[in-house]
Write a structure and sequence with these properties.
Layout: H1 2-19, E1 21-28, E2 39-42, E3 48-50, E4 56-61, E5 66-73, E6 76-84, E7 91-94, E8 111-115, H2 125-130, H3 138-142, E9 167-171, E10 174-176, E11 198-204, E12 218-224, E13 232-238, E14 241-250, E15 253-263, H4 265-270, E16 277-295, E17 299-316, E18 325-343, E19 348-365, E20 368-388, E21 391-409, E22 415-434, E23 439-450, E24 455-467, E25 472-483, H5 487-490, E26 499-512, E27 515-532, E28 543-560, E29 567-581, E30 597-607, E31 612-621, E32 625-626, E33 638-639, E34 643-655, E35 658-665, E36 675-678, E37 690-693, E38 700-710, H6 717-720
Parallel strand pairs: 1-7, 9-12
Antiparallel strand pairs: 1-4, 2-3, 2-5, 5-6, 8-11, 9-10, 11-12, 13-14, 13-38, 14-15, 15-16, 16-17, 17-18, 18-19, 19-20, 20-21, 21-22, 22-23, 23-24, 24-25, 25-26, 26-27, 27-28, 28-29, 29-30, 30-31, 31-34, 32-33, 34-35, 35-38, 36-37
């Protein structure tokens, strides 16, 4: 009997030994470097081991048949081997690096991002408010970034040799057709929107996404805040007006309202303008914005609206008239924007929205009256699919509708009417491909068809980025960009086609230790630009698309907000070489909005003992080209004097919720020149008389107090500084 039990036990042990299978192999990365500490196990069991310093692993199992072998490591994508356990011997396992969204490579060529749009912000929305000389205008603050040109009498964005109309503005992905306030010559305009309602800003100076079009030079993307942090009321009392804002929150819903009133009468009474201008009625405006948000578990709905009513009545000098020329303006603008985003199953995201812009002007010029009306609409549908951490696909379609009409009622009771209508349909697709944490690519294609030009355009876009170290990376970008001719020409010129540019960009960016450094070289090639044969466009003008040109340059940006105690500063420099043969140019020349050199220095210093922040902004631009008819040289061969502006600001923390803010633009009173005007006809000596066009006021003062009343008593204006 004992012998029988011994034999049975021996047989059982032998059976168990025979039933065990050894699983073995080696774990390496994509460069065949051994990976230590990788977890290797059979799914659904406790059988497994970890790889050693050489990447080797080995363990035994009693499992049989088809099984799943799991190999994982925190820095790599999980790998699976499926098959019969008898084949899991001497395996060679290659793990791919996990794409790290926080520390991995990003595509940065041609783009400045701010706020929640970027994991590392170059410029925060609040920088717009606290930049000396900006006076709360986001466009003025963006003009301190490289790639922009200073054009003193305008106020819009001129980017890398492009005209102001070559930059488009979008709110939550939907186009704003009239983003700037209406104004008169030689009085800079301002953006219509308050920076406090936006969580992030992306300013693409070139090479922008295939999702956007109809911009030869750049796009400015403004994204409204998703969820406000707290209920609060903001009150501002300024030397030129006042403002009131309020945010209310109901669970997952919220509403923010912001209103402002501006009247320059008190300012103009204290600060005399130059002798070329006389105000009959100073600039006055009433504006407001509202954002409603509703956030669900898997969706977000936003409704944004903004309105503006502004008037002015001014007499300006014109060299062709003995008396001052009267100009009257009344502008009404309404913008409505609604967006909806839904997060679907299987990593699909649906985003859709629509916007409507309505802009009306009543203009009086001498004895003539001009009424204009522009209505623009934009509808967009976008789908995004995350197939993996290495590949994301975005595609969609958009429709743009633009109706424009102006009516000129001349002194002789004759009426002239111009109209322009366009229906533009677009489709786009774009893929983000991450080969590793160091190398990524974005490839896109956009197609558009416009009924106004009866033309179809196909625009490829591609960007590459390589991260050479933990803090620095290189980027390349190429893209074709199309834009319909401006309304001021298209309303006269039948048969005009789409204008085109091609962008080539090389970028290096370093971010770390509170420092940001960017250097970007670019080349832009213009083709099919509009040309015409008269001094100003009209019904008797002949138009064509034979214009061309180029723009090349280097942009450099440096910011340090950590390494000098209490000091935050940035320095921007742009070099621009550009020439065009377009419009009524006699030959290829540099346009008058394109200075060769631009330099900006912005500083902000916190003085703890004085509870104050003091700021300084200095802007320098080389002379801009102009044409002197009294010379026999080349077209646009002369240059204005250099532009200089030193602006100062001071913010004093009266209490945790109150700030006293003062700013002075052009504090040193530089006698800048916006340009020159020449007489239409020569004088008795055969020379064309000219006058110098200077800013309406050399120096601008701004004083205000800002008061935030928070429902939960946690708001602290010190954080804003």
């Amino acid at each position: 009997m004992l012998k029988y039990h011994v034999l049975s036990l021996a047989f059982l042990c032998t059976s168990l030994l025979v039933a065990q299978t050894t699983i073995s192999g080696k774990v390496v990365d994509e460069k065949n470097i051994p990976i230590s500490g990788a977890n290797v196990y059979l799914e659904g069991t406790y059988d497994g081991a970890s790889s050693d310093a050489n990447g080797d692993f080995s363990f035994e199992t009693t499992m049989k048949g088809s099984q799943t072998l799991v190999i994982s490591n925190i820095a790599y994508e999980t790998h699976y081997e499926v098959g019969d356990v008898s084949y899991f011997k001497n395996l060679s396992i290659h793990l791919r690096e996990t794409i790290n969204q926080l520390n991995g490579v990003t595509l940065t060529a041609g783009s400045f991002e701010a706020g929640d749009n970027s994991k590392v912000s170059v410029l925060k929305p609040l920088d717009i408010v606290t930049t000396a000389g900006a006076a709360g205008d986001f466009v003025a603050a963006l003009q301190t970034l490289p790639g922009t040109s200073t054009v003193g009498g305008d106020g819009r964005l001129f980017v890398r040799g492009g005209a102001a109309g070559e930059t488009q503005v979008f709110i939550d992905g939907l186009r704003v057709f009239q983003p700037f306030n209406a104004t008169v010559n030689n009085i800079p305009t301002r953006g219509r929107f308050s920076p406090f309602l936006f969580k992030g800003i992306t300013f693409s100076t070139g090479g922008y996404s295939a999702e956007y079009g109809q911009a030869l030079s750049s796009v400015l993307l403004l994204n409204t805040t998703d969820v406000p942090e707290q209920e609060k009321t903001d009150i501002s009392v300024m030397s030129v007006g006042g403002g009131l804002g309020h945010t209310e929150i109901w669970g997952t819903k919220s509403l923010s309202i912001n209103t402002s009133y501006i009247n320059l009468a008190p300012y103009q009474a204290l600060v005399p303008s130059n002798q070329d201008v006389r105000w009959r009625k100073p600039y006055e405006s009433l504006s407001g914005e509202a954002v409603f948000r509703s956030k669900g578990a898997h969706n977000m709905f936003k409704f944004y609206t903004g309105f503006n009513h502004s008037t002015l009545d001014i007499d300006q000098k014109d060299i062709n008239y003995e008396d001052l020329v009267r100009f009257r303006l009344k502008n009404n603008n309404l913008y409505i924007n609604s967006t909806y985003k839904h997060y679907l199953e299987n990593d699909w995201t649906l985003a859709t929205g629509a916007s409507v812009s309505i802009d009306k002007n009543k203009i009086g010029l001498l004895t003539d009256a001009i009424d204009t009306e522009e209505i623009g609409a934009h509808i967009k549908l976008k789908l995004k699919k995350n197939f993996s951490s290495r590949f994301q696909l975005t595609f969609g379609a958009a429709y743009f509708k633009l109706d424009y009409e102006d009516v000129l009622m001349a002194e002789n009771d004759r009426t002239y009417k111009s109209v322009y209508d366009d229906d533009l349909t677009a489709a786009f697709a774009e893929g983000d491909i991450f080969f590793s944490n160091r190398f990524a690519m974005k490839v896109g294609l956009r197609g558009e068809y416009s009924t106004a030009v009866e033309d179809f355009s196909l625009a490829p876009r591609v960007s590459l980025a390589y991260k050479g170290g933990d803090k620095g990376q290189f980027s390349l970008a190429y893209g074709d960009f199309y834009q319909n001719p401006a309304i001021e020409y298209a309303k006269y010129g039948d048969g005009l086609n789409t204008e085109k540019t091609s962008h080539y960009i090389l970028n290096y960016q370093y971010m770390g230790n509170g420092r940001t450094f960017r250097a970007e070289a670019y080349y832009k090639e213009y083709d099919h630009l509009v040309k015409f044969d008269t001094d100003t466009p009209g019904f008797d003008t002949l138009f064509n698309n034979l214009g061309s040109g180029y723009a090349a340059g280097l942009d450099v940006f440096w910011r340090d907000n950590k390494n000098i105690k209490n000091l935050d500063y940035w320095i921007s420099y742009s070099y621009l070489d550009t020439q065009r043969d377009y419009l009524n140019f006699e030959e290829q020349a540099t346009p008058n909005f394109a200075p060769k050199h631009n330099l900006s220095i912005v500083t902000k210093y916190w003085i703890n003992d004085l509870r104050s922040q003091v700021g300084l902004s200095y802007t320098h631009a080389s002379g801009r080209p102009y044409d002197d008819p009294n010379t026999t040289g080349s077209f646009l061969a002369e240059k204005t004097k250099t532009y200089n502006n030193l602006s100062l600001n001071w913010a004093y923390l009266v209490s945790p919720q109150k700030i006293l803010y003062c700013s002075v633009s052009n504090a040193l009173g530089f006698k800048n020149v916006n340009g020159y005007q020449y007489a239409d006809a020569p004088n008795s000596n055969g020379q064309f008389d000219r006058r110098t066009i200077r800013p309406t006021a050399d120096t601008f003062f701004f004083v205000g107090i800002f008061w935030t009343i928070s429902a939960d008593k946690k708001s602290n204006q010190l954080d804003n500084l």
